[in-house]
């Protein structure tokens, strides 16, 4: 028999062990290489992101920062470079909240960075950064409107007829009412006020030779009718300034004045001295006089002659919305002194001129001398070439008129 060859496993076991050892060494080397790579990469990242310093320019000034510094950290580290959010303001400009306005503005290389992104924004070297304070914010508001009161100017010195040239009209202003503060402030003028103007005029119509006869204090049961008879006979028109309480006492006479082409206007209601009257009493007096005239004759007028011719700047300011004209005179016959018919006649003829307004009376006392003087006054004035006009006729010939009622702005100021 052949001898069985003896097998030996000693060398094989040793080889396997050697291979296993080499495998573990390889793995360890690989791990070490990976760790080394991680360390190197981490170090590189740390250097790039945290340890490396870069230069940036903030508002033109050079600043050295870590490469990974965020915009938020940059501002915090430098106290926002002296900037701050804007203020929250009330509508009148007062401060409601010191930092309640827009946030500070940050720009990087010209681009605005939203505040929400400041924590994620980093910079490259030589970045151009600008920081400025935020703008103020005005609180929300509601809009209201308020009037701007107009004023009244009166320039009537030395004139025969006083009149309303322009009627006052309030202006208008826009007001903002703060939602938070509730404060009110004017923001703009929507419309400027138009001032009321009272001016004096003394009409002298060019190309004419006219004169206006006027009679005060009627109607009277004794003297008005004879005067109307003379005027009718002579074909002359005149102006009667009637007292309201007498108008309703003698309505037929006032109606006759109107029917025969004369002008009727107010001489108040009870003939008071108006400068002594309080505003409300004065307005009531004038209103009653005008109302009684309308009741008596149906005439609505805005023309008046103040009793005694006394009517100052203060009275105009109190009642300029009630009347258009206050008519005085340029020739005073002083018939109330009873100087005689000839003196009354001469007072007119010696002072007559184109546009003159003559003062006589048909009531308020004995007017026999007026009745006696009137025919001669008319005849002699006609002989000199005069024509007779009413006050409205005189104004029309002169091209003068008060402001139209369409421009009326309201009651006289209290």
TrEMBL record:
<dbReference type="GO" id="GO:0016020">
    <property type="term" value="C:membrane"/>
</dbReference>
<dbReference type="InterPro" id="IPR011330">
    <property type="entry name" value="Glyco_hydro/deAcase_b/a-brl"/>
</dbReference>
<keyword id="KW-1133">Transmembrane helix</keyword>
<keyword id="KW-0378">Hydrolase</keyword>
<feature type="domain" description="NodB homology">
    <location>
        <begin position="209"/>
        <end position="389"/>
    </location>
</feature>
<dbReference type="InterPro" id="IPR050248">
    <property type="entry name" value="Polysacc_deacetylase_ArnD"/>
</dbReference>
<dbReference type="Pfam" id="PF01522">
    <property type="entry name" value="Polysacc_deac_1"/>
</dbReference>
<dbReference type="GO" id="GO:0016810">
    <property type="term" value="F:hydrolase activity, acting on carbon-nitrogen (but not peptide) bonds"/>
</dbReference>
<feature type="transmembrane region" description="Helical">
    <location>
        <begin position="28"/>
        <end position="47"/>
    </location>
</feature>
<keyword id="KW-0472">Membrane</keyword>
<protein>
    <submittedName>
        <fullName>Polysaccharide deacetylase</fullName>
    </submittedName>
</protein>
<dbReference type="GO" id="GO:0005975">
    <property type="term" value="P:carbohydrate metabolic process"/>
</dbReference>
<keyword id="KW-0812">Transmembrane</keyword>
<dbReference type="InterPro" id="IPR002509">
    <property type="entry name" value="NODB_dom"/>
</dbReference>
<dbReference type="GO" id="GO:0046872">
    <property type="term" value="F:metal ion binding"/>
</dbReference>
<keyword id="KW-0479">Metal-binding</keyword>
């Amino acid at each position: 028999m052949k001898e069985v060859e003896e097998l030996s496993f000693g060398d094989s076991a040793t080889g396997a062990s050697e291979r296993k050892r080499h495998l573990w060494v390889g793995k360890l080397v690989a791990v070490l290489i990976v760790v080394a790579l991680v360390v190197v990469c981490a170090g590189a990242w740390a250097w790039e992101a945290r340890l490396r310093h870069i230069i940036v320019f903030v508002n033109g000034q050079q600043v050295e920062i870590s490469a990974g510094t965020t915009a938020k950290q940059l501002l915090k580290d430098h106290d926002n470079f002296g900037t701050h959010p804007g203020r929250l303001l009330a509508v009148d400009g007062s401060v409601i909240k010191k930092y309640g306005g827009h946030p500070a503005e940050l720009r990087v290389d010209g681009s605005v960075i939203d505040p929400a992104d400041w924590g994620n924004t980093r910079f490259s070297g030589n970045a151009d950064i600008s920081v400025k304070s935020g703008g103020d914010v005005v609180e929300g508001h509601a809009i209201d409107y308020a009037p701007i009161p107009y004023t009244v100017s009166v320039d009537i010195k030395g004139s025969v007829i006083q009149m309303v040239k322009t009627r006052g009209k309030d202006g208008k202003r826009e007001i903002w009412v703060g939602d938070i503060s509730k404060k009110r402030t004017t923001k703009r003028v929507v419309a400027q006020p138009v001032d009321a103007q009272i001016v004096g005029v003394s009409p002298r119509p060019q190309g004419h030779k006219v004169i206006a006869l006027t009679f005060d204090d009627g109607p009277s049961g004794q003297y008005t009718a004879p005067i109307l008879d003379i005027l009718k006979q002579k074909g002359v028109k005149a102006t009667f300034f009637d007292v309201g309480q007498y108008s309703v006492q003698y309505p037929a006479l006032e109606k006759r004045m109107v029917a025969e082409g004369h002008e009727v206007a107010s001489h108040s209601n009870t003939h008071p001295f108006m400068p002594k009257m309080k505003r409300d009493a004065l307005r009531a007096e004038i209103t009653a006089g005008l109302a009684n005239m309308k009741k008596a004759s149906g005439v609505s007028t805005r023309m008046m002659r103040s009793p005694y011719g006394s009517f100052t700047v203060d009275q105009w300011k109190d009642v300029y919305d009630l009347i258009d004209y206050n008519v005085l005179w340029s020739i005073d016959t002083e018939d109330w002194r009873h100087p005689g018919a000839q003196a009354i006649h001469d007072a007119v003829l010696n002072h007559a001129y184109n546009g003159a307004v003559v003062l006589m009376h048909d009531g308020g006392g004995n007017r026999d001398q007026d009745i006696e003087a009137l025919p001669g006054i008319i005849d002699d004035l006609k002989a000199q070439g005069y024509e007779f006009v009413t006050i409205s006729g005189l104004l029309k010939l002169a091209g003068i008129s008060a402001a139209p009622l369409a421009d009326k702005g309201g009651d006289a100021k209290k």
